[in-house]
């Protein structure tokens, strides 16, 4: 198996193909996920990202009318899915490691499990706030920022674990990826500050960047230029999400804090049903992908959101 950065180097300028999947909901089997991935293997993906999901909270009514706050995780299994995909498809996997909902000890344990499984790629993310909170609140005993998480991973890469009594520890060898935001992280006061934080993550050890989804390639090209001007010289992988429903015209900007180009919005609004919207999304993504490939993007990374039929149609036109 290989690291993401090695796949990019070995491609020698060829634009690679990769995608991201969600773990099944608790109680679902993994076969449905396999069925979604199988058609994409035709295009020789070099790695598959697997998202990690933090806890959610609900309130259960107890006797006497009291409410009990209960923690639950709706999409567990990230580490197990990575192992299953490697076994089934003989492909590199990139588990997301997040700050929210995990202590440093739990993070270390997850990283040890990944090391034992031969998984040496991770995407280090802060993660989102839980739905009941207006902003991100660090878990007690956990990390506040992705940069802190990167430092923990790099410490393990140097053989330094949380338990300082552990001597001569076997060093891990993780390739660390991080997220970048062509339209600025919504919490950053300005783009300059956002780039400063991104540069810090690279200086701490991040070896590549995967962008938030965008629908205007100029946003990506400008982002790359601004990164380079700040001395951020690692590969920057564009993240793509094909539009698939009319509701996404409002949902995607709300959740991901991105702009949708007027031409795309107008084309989608003319559609009479979501099948037509899906076709508009496919055609738009094909044009995005072709242009990004022509400009030498190191890899096209697709956010599947649990569906693959539209990505298959796009990939057939690109690879």
Please specify the SSE layout and strand pairing.
Layout: H1 4-11, E1 16-21, H2 31-37, E2 47-50, E3 56-61, E4 67-72, H3 78-89, E5 92-98, H4 104-117, E6 121-125, H5 146-157, E7 175-180, H6 191-204, E8 208-213, H7 217-229, E9 236-240, H8 248-256, H9 262-269, H10 274-294, E10 299-303, H11 309-318
Parallel strand pairs: 1-2, 1-10, 2-5, 5-6, 6-7, 7-8, 8-9, 9-10
Antiparallel strand pairs: 3-4
Description of the structure:
By secondary structure, the chain is α/β, with parallel strands linked by helices. The chain has a single domain (about 5-319), classed as TIM Barrel (Alpha-Beta Barrel), CATH 3.20.20.220. Helix content is about 40%, strand content about 20%. The chain has helices at about 5-10, 30-35, 80-90, 105-115, 145-155, 190-205, 215-230, 250-255, 260-270, 275-295, 310-319, and strands at about 15-20, 45-50, 55-60, 65-70, 90-100, 120-125, 175-180, 210-215, 235-240, 300-305. Strands 1-2-5-6-7-8-9-10 form an eight-stranded parallel beta barrel, surrounded by five helices. Strand 1, helix 2 and strand 2 form a beta-alpha-beta unit. Helix 9 packs antiparallel against helix 10. The longest helix is centred in the last third of the chain and has 21 residues, at about 275-295. The protein is globular and about 60 Å long.
């Amino acid at each position: 198996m290989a690291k993401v950065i090695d796949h990019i180097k070995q491609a020698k300028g060829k634009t690679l193909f990769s995608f991201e999947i969600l773990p099944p909901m608790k109680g679902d089997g993994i076969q449905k996920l396999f069925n979604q991935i199988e058609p994409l293997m035709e295009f020789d993906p070099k790695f598959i990202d697997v998202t990690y999901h933090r806890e959610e909270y609900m309130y259960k009514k107890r006797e006497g009318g009291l409410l009990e706050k209960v923690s639950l995780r709706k999409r567990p299994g990230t580490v197990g899915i990575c192992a299953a995909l490697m076994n089934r498809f003989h492909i590199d996997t990139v588990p997301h490691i997040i700050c929210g909902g995990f202590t440093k000890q739990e993070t270390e344990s997850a990283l040890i499990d990944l090391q034992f499984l031969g998984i040496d790629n991770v995407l280090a993310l802060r993660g989102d706030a839980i739905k009941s909170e207006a902003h991100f609140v660090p878990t007690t005993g956990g990390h506040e920022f992705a940069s802190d998480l990167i430092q923990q991973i790099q410490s393990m890469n140097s053989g330094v674990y949380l338990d300082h009594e552990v001597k001569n520890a076997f060093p891990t060898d993780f390739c660390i990826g991080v997220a970048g935001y062509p339209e600025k992280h919504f919490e950053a006061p300005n783009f300059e500050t956002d780039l400063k934080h991104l540069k810090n993550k690279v200086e701490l050890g991040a070896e590549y960047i995967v962008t938030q989804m965008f629908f205007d390639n100029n946003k990506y090209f400008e982002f790359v230029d601004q990164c380079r001007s700040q001395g951020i010289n690692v590969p920057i992988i564009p993240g793509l999400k094909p539009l698939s429903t009319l509701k996404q015209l409002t949902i995607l900007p709300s959740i991901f804090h991105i702009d949708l180009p007027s031409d795309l919005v107008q084309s989608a609004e003319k559609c009479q049903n979501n099948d037509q919207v899906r076709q508009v999304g496919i055609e738009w993504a094909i044009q995005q992908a072709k242009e990004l490939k022509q400009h030498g993007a190191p890899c096209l990374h697709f956010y599947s959101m649990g569906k693959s039929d539209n990505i298959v149609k796009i990939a057939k036109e690109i690879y």
